[in-house]
Specification:
Elements: H1 7-34, H2 41-44, H3 52-63, H4 67-80, H5 86-107, H6 112-138
Helix pairs in contact: 1-3, 1-5, 4-6, 5-6
Length: 140
């Protein structure tokens, strides 16, 4: 199996994170220009109430540096340990797909029940990746 294939889901997660970050930046300018948000708010992120459209995207951007960090780590461990196989590739793409769904829900309708389900499915997929790796390491 080509070990480099594990890098493609990493790039997809990077694109999601970078895209949400750019969207957040655009919305920050909009909030200052159209909603009279004081630009000084961004020095310490305090002292004002963000418009809902900006708060959702900002919260999601922060979320992309929480659970996905464990995804980045396990992908790099798999790559460095030459353990990449078809099942890992499938699981990592499934995780990325669920994270894109989670991002869509979180930054649009933000229906908590749907968002929670996407988060839980992603967490389960990531747990399966880590558990499989643990079994491989312990049984080696």
């Amino acid at each position: 199996m080509n070990q480099d294939l594990i890098l493609l889901p990493l790039f997809a997660m990077f694109l999601l994170t970078f895209g949400i970050g750019l969207w957040m930046l655009k919305l920050r300018f909009k909030a200052v220009k159209e909603d009279s948000l004081n630009p000084g708010y961004f020095q310490l992120n305090r002292g004002a109430k963000l418009p809902d459209y900006l708060a959702k995207v900002t919260n999601h951007y922060t979320n992309l540096f929480e659970l996905p960090v464990l995804f980045y780590v396990v992908c790099l461990v798999l790559y460095a340990g030459h353990k990449v196989d078809g099942l890992y590739i499938g699981l990592t793409w499934a995780f990325v797909g669920v994270r894109y769904i989670h991002a869509y829900i979180h930054t649009t309708s933000n229906i908590l029940k749907q968002r929670r389900l996407a988060f839980l499915v992603g967490s389960l997929i990531l747990s399966c990746i880590w558990a499989r790796l643990l079994v491989q390491v312990v049984s080696a």
